[in-house]
Amino acid sequence: MDYLTRILNAKVYDVAIETSLARASLLSTRLGHNVLIKREDEQPVFSFKLRGAYNKMAHLSAKQLAAGVVAASSGNHAQGVALAAQKLGTRATIVMPKTTPSIKVDAVRSRGANVVLFGESYSDSYEQALTIATKSKKAFIHPYDDPDVIAGQGTIGMEILRQHQGDIDAIFVAVGGGGLIAGIASYVKAVRPKTKIIAVEPFDSSAMTQSLKAGRRVEIDNVGLFADAIAVKQVGKETFRLCQQLVDDTVLVTNDEICAAIKDVYTDCRSVLEPGGATAIAGLKKYCEQRRGTGKTYVAVACGSNMNFDRLRFVAERAMLGEQREVVFAVTLPERPGSFRKFCDLLGPRAVTEFNYRYSNHIDGGGDAHVFVGIEVAHRKESTQLFKDFRAAALRPVDLTDNEMAKLHVRHLVGGHSPGAAGERVFRFDFPERPGALAQFLRVMNSGWNITLFHYRNQGSDVGRVLAGIQAPDAERANLDDFLQRIANLGYAWVEETDNIAYKLFLGLHHGKAPKAPTS
């Protein structure tokens, strides 16, 4: 009841807004449940943190405000403190980890705060901020382990119940230090105790899950920084006490699942969440998949959208894997003319997201070919059937979908010099990226030619790009020229790259001697 009173009297709306509770129509249809997203990314600082920061600072005395405030944050709390300081006419010093995305650092500085970059994680910055606060005798604004901060975040729970008058089966909340979930749970459990509160964390940043399981606060050694906004080594004392009483369950998610959730929210809401901001949605999806059923009403808190633009490349790369819409295989097939075409025929009409291959046959003949291929599928059952089809055709597939090294590194390293690729000509092809375009390209190629190099990756562009090596006998030169003309007529622009220095250095046949680089 103490927290219920604090939340009802919280001072947040001088700077924060009441954010919308939006129905995710496409996600609801896919999961078979009514999925609602609490859009805290709509806040002026694109995160919920403004609520708790301002509520805490609004309760400081005039003398404390005149002295200034100190905070530690990986970004979102920092922006909340900086904006609150502007509103209340005080100065803020924010200690942030060196790993903080530049978008967050720049946003904090733009609001007039003094930024100190220190340490590799929030815990390092926290200790430094405490030291600064003690020496300067300034008020320290804790990002989560403070009753006024917790109460400020609890206004989100108050809004959710006011915005949705019907039953809510569960509310999913991302957890870092625990202030957000402690605040929401304190209000919701006091008003609608039957609504479950589900904590969601990444596997590599699961301090709350481990603490609840152990019955005490656990400090973890290494914290994953992908979801940097919720990356802490240890949860707060007060937040842990409240979560022990009020949290019903926990869900752990992978980075790939978080990436898939970012894509889901973009599709439904046209908002790009940061990894920490999408973690609750990833947990909701996983919870539904594990428990199945239909017809429930679930709420997930989208707690922030301060996405570093450079990170979008990784998110786009991993989203399809996270939602199990892409499977990655290594397929071994006999290295002889016709095998490549046979393999492509087995793929059928499926969209190929990646195709990497390098001819490795030695001059004396024999050997196998290894193809690294990404394939778009509707669900895991389809990938299982495809795996069986490859085996039935005497091809040897290996599922690399959950192989982290393969996804991060090996896919970019398929290639190198091939001693059996003498006479190889290399071409770069560009074509409109549409369904079936790659398959059409492969079918037009002469099955009697030796494909010595093939690289394709769907990058989300309007143009598909292929680098291909072709070993055509001298007698086939006219046919190869005819093929190039037909491809051009079909809209596949091409450029021969056989003399390209990058090809000669890293892929071409030079018998261990580096080719001479051009002088200009």
Characterization of the model:
The protein has 520 residues and is α/β, with parallel strands linked by helices. The protein is 41% helix and 20% strand. It has 20 helices and 18 strands. The strands form three sheets. Strands 14-11-13-12-16-17-15-18 form an eight-stranded antiparallel beta sheet. Strands 1-2-10-7-8-9 form a six-stranded mixed beta sheet, with helices on both faces. α8 crosses α9, α12 crosses α13 and α12 packs across α14. The longest helix has 17 residues. The protein is elongated. The N and C termini lie far apart (77 Å).
Q: What share of the residues lie within helices?
A: 40-55%
**CA-atom Rg in angstroms:** 28 Å
By secondary-structure content and strand pairing, the structural class works out as alpha/beta
Count of helical stretches: 20
Task: Describe the strand arrangement of the main beta sheet, using strand numbers.
Answer: 14-11-13-12-16-17-15-18
Query: Sheet bearing the most strands, described?
Result: 8 strands, antiparallel
Query: What form results from the Cα inertia axes?
Result: elongated
Distance between the termini: 77 Å
Residue windows where pLDDT falls under 50 for at least 5 positions:
511-515
Total beta strand runs? 18
Q: How big a fraction of the residues is strand?
A: 15-25%
Average pLDDT over all residues:
87
Short summary:
With 520 residues, this protein is of the alpha/beta class.
List keywords for this structure.
8-stranded antiparallel beta sheet; 6-stranded mixed beta sheet; 520 residues; 20% strand
